[in-house]
Design a protein that fits this description.
By secondary structure, this protein is mainly alpha-helical. Helices cover 71% and strands 0% of the residues. The chain has 15 helices and no strands. The chain is globular and about 75 Å long. The C terminus is likely disordered.
Length: 374
């Protein structure tokens, strides 16, 4: 009975402290509420209330952020304790899994659940953009600008002149559809729940939301284009990107096939239905935007790692053209806009001052006479 009471007291302490941290995030929650209300007003005003997509993310988002990533985080902490400490593992474990640390992580999980609603609103608005614009009106001009900037040639032709290979395509598709997802949503979970990056938590999450809203909704809606994959369907010119699409179609049986996913998106667009990650827009590229955001924050902690992260931004941008998702300018503009978001956020959002649990850093145990590890 005493043991059960002690566990309940511990759980209550975690919840109570997490609630205090949640209150510190009130500005972020308010931004989510305003964004969702704006989305609902927009969709109702254009007669697209049937494009709501909130419930689509519930299962996958809760599974990812409520089970898969927390399990990975716990395993990582456990391996860290076993590998880097010897006789003082119990002390370290108490620090790593302390009430303060668990409360901090719980507050981050609460915010991630709110971001589930945020993502549902993003997809809802993205599905409504073509209704508002009455179609895709900017593909020809964007494709022509692309060719002009690349010496009169559509940039995919430059890429295919050196990398038209089934093996390259498979690697690029895996990176674009799997590895990019793991990196970006893993980074979101890490920043939201780990005290190791507590000082940038609010600024990162504010920038994360700004990328989706400004790049993925506002600019995308104002200059709505479908992208090379759908260029023929929206302009009638099936020849311009026909060879590229034929090459991509050769890998349609792959689980990461760009061609198969593009067919999925177009079929739902024609049926005027919403689904997981549906909605078609090319300019600017959210894929490149989020990679750029993470590269800028990584660079704050390590310039060498930041250089690799920026190189990965270039890889994502090239991949988006290679797979016919984007014109090259979609990536260029996204990177510039995200850099501007980052600069403004650094000026307007100060480092977080919330109390956070300290983390063990020693790799070996000190002798008893030495100063304490923590």
């Amino acid at each position: 009975m005493t043991e059960s009471y002690s566990v309940l007291r511990c759980l209550w302490a975690i919840v109570r402290e997490a609630a205090q941290l949640v209150r510190r995030d009130s500005g972020l929650y308010l931004a989510i509420v305003i964004y969702v209300l704006a989305g609902l007003i927009f969709l109702n005003a254009i007669g697209a209330a049937d494009r709501l997509a909130f419930s689509i993310y519930f299962g996958s988002w809760i599974s990812l952020n409520g089970f898969v990533l927390p399990t990975i985080a716990i395993l990582a902490d456990t391996i860290f304790i076993i590998h880097r400490f010897n006789s003082r593992r119990r002390v370290v474990a108490k620090r790593v899994f302390s009430t303060e640390r668990l409360a901090y992580s719980l507050s981050g999980l609460c915010l991630l659940m709110a971001l589930m609603i945020f993502q549902g609103n993003f997809t809802s608005m993205k599905n409504g953009m073509s209704v508002w614009q009455g179609g895709f009106r900017f593909d020809v001009v964007q494709a022509n600008i692309d060719a002009f900037l690349h010496f009169g040639t559509d940039p995919w032709r430059w890429l295919y002149s050196v990398a038209e290979s089934d093996r390259v395509r498979d690697i690029v598709e895996w990176n674009y559809n799997v590895f990019w997802f793991l990196l970006n949503f893993g980074a979101l979970f890490f920043v939201a729940t780990s005290p190791m990056v507590a000082s940038v938590r609010t600024r990162y999450l504010a920038c994360f939301m700004a990328v989706w809203i400004l790049v993925g909704n506002i600019l995308a809606a104002l200059f709505l284009s479908a992208g090379p994959a759908f260029y023929g369907a929206v302009t009638g010119d099936t020849a311009r990107f026909g060879e590229q699409l034929a090459f991509l179609a050769r890998g349609a049986a792959s689980s990461n096939s760009a061609a198969a996913y593009q067919q999925y998106l177009w079929s739902l667009y024609e049926a005027k239905r919403t689904g997981f990650a549906t909605g078609i827009s090319a300019f600017p590229s959210v894929h490149v935007g989020l990679a750029m955001l993470n590269a800028l924050f990584v660079r704050e902690y390590s310039r060498p790692l930041g250089a690799f992260a920026l190189l990965y931004v270039a890889v994502v941008a090239v991949s988006s053209v290679y797979l016919a998702w984007h014109y090259a300018i979609d990536g260029y503009v996204a990177a510039i806009v995200v850099f501007a978001i980052y600069v403004v956020a650094r000026k307007l959002i100060p480092a977080d001052r919330r109390p956070v649990p300290s983390m063990p850093t020693r790799t070996v145990d000190r002798p008893a006479a030495a100063a304490p590890v923590f």
